[in-house]
């Protein structure tokens, strides 16, 4: 907000494509803490009003197609939404400039 840059936020998948069995879940230690953010303490409560109505996978496909060959995806977490976009939209994969993991 201080830079006056609007970054769109879309709600994506809330679960993995393949569910782990119970034994794997017990042995899995959260890499970024139990909250996914390293259990960092923040004084500010996020404003969820900024979350757009459009689904993240649909938005990702729309944005990539509006800017074919120009979009670089920097992936810092699970790749579920990207996997769903590739599976749902046949031209999605060819329209991305690069994926950085």
UniProtKB/TrEMBL annotation:
Residue ranges of domain Inosine/uridine-preferring nucleoside hydrolase in the record: 3-101
Database matches in SUPFAM superfamilies: Nucleoside hydrolase
Domain of life: Eukaryota
Molecular functions (GO terms): hydrolase activity, hydrolyzing N-glycosyl compounds
Coiled coil: none
Cross-referenced Pfam families: IU_nuc_hydro
Alphabetized InterPro entries for the sequence: Inosine/uridine_hydrolase_dom, IUN_hydrolase, Ribo_hydro-like
Protein family according to the UniProt entry: Belongs to the IUNH family.
The protein, known as: Inosine/uridine-preferring nucleoside hydrolase domain-containing protein
Native source organism of the sequence: Cuerna arida
């Amino acid at each position: 907000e201080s830079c006056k840059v609007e970054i769109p936020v879309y709600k994506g998948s809330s679960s993995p494509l393949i569910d782990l069995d119970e034994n794997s879940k017990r042995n899995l230690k959260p890499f970024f803490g139990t909250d996914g953010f390293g259990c960092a303490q923040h004084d500010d409560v996020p404003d969820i009003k900024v979350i757009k109505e459009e689904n993240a996978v649909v938005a990702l496909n729309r944005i990539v197609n509006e800017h074919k060959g120009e979009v670089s995806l920097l992936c810092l977490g699970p790749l579920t939404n990207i996997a769903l976009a590739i599976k749902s939209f046949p031209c999605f994969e060819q329209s991305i400039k690069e994926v950085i993991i």
